[in-house]
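Prompt: I keep going back and forth on a fold encoding question. Comparing notes only helps if you start from a blank page. Show me how you would write down a chain together with its backbone fold. Please set it down just below, with no commentary around it:
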Amino acid sequence: MKLQDCEITLEDSIVFSELSGDRNPIHLDPLAARRLIYGKPVVHGVHLSLKLLEHLLTGGRDVPSPRRIRARFNAPLFHDTSAVASVAHTKPNKSRMSLHAGVQELGWVEVEAPVTGGPRASDIPKLRADEETHPVLLAGGDIASHAGSVDLSLDRDTYAKLFPALAALHGWDGIVSILLASTYIVGMLCPGMNSLLASFDLSAPEGNTQVYGNDALNYRVKRHDPRFNSVVIEVQTGPWTGTINAFVRPAPAVQPSYGEVCDEISARQWQDRHALVVGGSRGLGEVAAKIVCAAGGRCTLTYQKGADDAQRVRDEIIDGGGSAETLQLDVEGDIASQLGTAPAHAVTDILYFPSPHISPSLSGDFDQVLFDKYMRVYVYPLAPLLAVLTERSTGSPRIFWPSSAYIDKPVRGFAEYAAAKGAGEAICRWLVLDYPDAEIRVPRLPPMRTDQTLSIVPVKIAEPLDVLCGELLADPEKRSHAQPNT
C-alpha cells in the first residue's frame, strides 16, 4: 500500500545532525561531499528510518513501541529526491516499511512490538556530554580494537520538529535515543569520518525494555574486514543489545603530485602551448594540467565550485617550476562572457574534463532528466568553447574531448551517460566541418581512479597518469587532424 512520497531536504538533515550529533560531512556539506563516494550529500540512515516510521504513523497505522527494531540501507537517498514510502508487510506485533526510488529499494525498517507492555524511558537528558563536533579519522588498525560509550540524549523540541507523530508517543523516547546514539557512534567515532551506515538490529527481552536517562550506549568493534571495508559493532545499554553494520568508505582520490608527474616526463611536447584545462581542479583534469606543465606548457585550469582545490593544484605546479593560473568557469553558463576574464595570452588547446556526478539510472527506463544533465555539461558547451578558442588562437586550435569506453561496453544503468558521450562524439565530428583547421581528438578512455570511481570494495582500475600521458604526449604524426580519433 502506498502511503506517500518521502522527501528530505538538506535543511532537514542539518536539524537532524543537531538532534543526533552526527555531523559527518557526507550528510551536510555539498562542497566536501562532491569528492566523496556519492558526489553529493546523502540522508542519514537513522533519519530515514525514523522518517519511515513517521509515515507509518501518519498513515493511520498503530505502531506500538518496539522490543526490536532493525533496518537495512541498500542505496543512498539524496536530498530533495522523491521516493515512495510504503508498507512492505504487516503481521501481528510487526510492521515493516520500505522506501523505493524508481525500481530500486533504497532501504527498509522493521519494528516488532512486545506482546505485553512496551519500552519506557525516564529522564533522558537534552544534550550529550562531551560530544564531538568533528568526526574522528581512525586508521584501519585502530578500528579493529575500538570501543567506548556514548551518553543517551534526546532534545524533545528538535525531535518533535522533525517527527511530530513519533514524538507524541513518549514510549518511543528510549529506543529513539538509542538510535540517535548509534548514528553518532558510526558517523563521528567509529568508523568516524570515512563511514557509511549499512544496517542495524537492536532488541530487548520481552517485558524488560526500560531505558534510563543516565544510561550510556556501550559499543565495541566485533569484526573489521579490510577486504570488504566492513565493520560490525556490538552495542548495549540496559536490557538493549544489538549490532550495527557499517562500511569504511574510501577517502577522496589523491592524484600524483606535480613532482611525481615531472619524474615521469622528460620530453617537451607542450613547449610554447597554453592549455585551457576545463575542470582542472581535481581528478582527470588535475592530472592533465600537471602533464601539460611538466611537458613545458602553461595552463589555465578552471573550476566551478572547488576554488581551494584549484588553488592547491596551481600552487603545486608553480612551486615545482611550472606555469599555471586558475579561472572560475561554469560550463552551463555563458561561456563567452566568463572567458572574457581569462588571461590575454592566446589559448592553443582546450582539454575538456568537467563532469557532473555520474550515477546509474534508478527508474528502470531511459531517464531523460539524467540524460539532459549530462548533455548540459558534456555537449552543449563545446561549440561556444571552440568559438572562443578560435578567436584567441594564432594557429590551428586543438581540443581534447575524452569520450568513454562505456560506449563500446554497455553497463546497465548507464545508458544516459553513454548516450551523452556518443552525442558528444557526433558534435565533435560536425564541429570539424565548421573549423576545418581544428584538431579535435575524442579517444574513448577506460574508467580511471578518480572520485567518480570510488567503491566500497577495492577494485583494480587504470591510473590516470598512465592513460593521460599516453594520450597527451602521443606523437603528433599519429594523431588525426581532420576528424575525431575514435
About this structure: The longest strand covers residues 216-225. The two ends are 50 Å apart (CA to CA). The mean pLDDT is 89. Residues 258-478 form a domain with the Rossmann fold fold (CATH 3.40.50.720).
